[in-house]
Amino acid sequence: MNHSPAPQAPLLNQWQQPVGQPLPQWQMRPLPQRLVLQGRYCKLEPISAERHAKDLFDAYAGAPDGSDWTYMISGPFDSAESYRQYAEKLEQSDDPLHFTVIDLASGRAVGSLALMRIDARHGVIEVGHVALSRSLKRTRVATEAQFLLMQHAFDTLGYRRYEWKCDSLNAPSRRAALRLGFTFEGVFRQAIVYRGRSRDTAWFSIIDGEWPVLRTAFETWLDPANFDADGQQRQSLAALRAPHP
Known about the structure:
Layout: E1 11-12, E2 18-19, E3 37-38, E4 42-46, H1 49-60, H2 80-92, E5 97-103, E6 108-119, E7 124-132, H3 140-156, E8 161-167, H4 171-179, E9 183-194, E10 197-207, H5 211-222, H6 237-241
Parallel strand pairs: 7-8
Antiparallel strand pairs: 1-2, 3-4, 4-5, 5-6, 6-7, 8-10, 9-10
C-alpha cells in the first residue's frame, strides 16, 4: 500500500475559484548529466559501447528466450555486433539518457536503464528503457540501481515528479513499480503503436512530498543488516514504507 501525504485543500483566488498551491521560489531544474552514481552493491555509469556492450550482450544472452524484450521497443539481439550497434545509439542519446548498471561484486555490466522525457521546466522526469538481465532479477543490485537514479532525480536535481510508464499488459513491470513505491495513476488507452501492435500505457509516479519516506525505506532495506545469512530480506520495502503506530 502506498501512503501518500493527504492532499491539501485547494486555495481560492479572488474570484473564489480553486487553484493549486503556489510555488513562488520554483525555478527550472538542471538537466541530468553523464556522471557516475555510486552505491553499496552497484554503480551506474553512462553507457559506453566500447566499455559495456560485450558484458551487456553476454548478460542478456543468459536468458533462455527473448521474452524479456516483449514489452521493450528494441531487442532481442542475435549477435554481439548487433547489440554493440544498438549501444552506440544509446550512447549518443541525451533524452533518453542511458546508464549501465555495474555489479560491484563482479565488476561487470549487467543491465541498463535511462532517465527520459526530461521536462526541466516543470521538474518532471521518467525512468524507462529498463533492461535488467536475468541475473539481476529480485536482487539488491536491481533495487539499488532504481534507488540511485531516483535519489539523483529528487535529491541532486530537485525534480518534483518521477514517472514510470509501461504497457498495461506488462504485469511484472506493474508489480515492480508498486514495490518500488510508485502510485498507479491510470491507463492511457491506445497511447502508442510499437512492434506493430497497439499499447495501452499504465502510468505511475512518485512526487517529492513522498520521497523522504521512500528514501528512508530504501536505505533501510538496502542495509546489509536487513538480510539474513542466506541473503533473505528481514523486512520488505512495503513494510518499511508503512506508517508506524
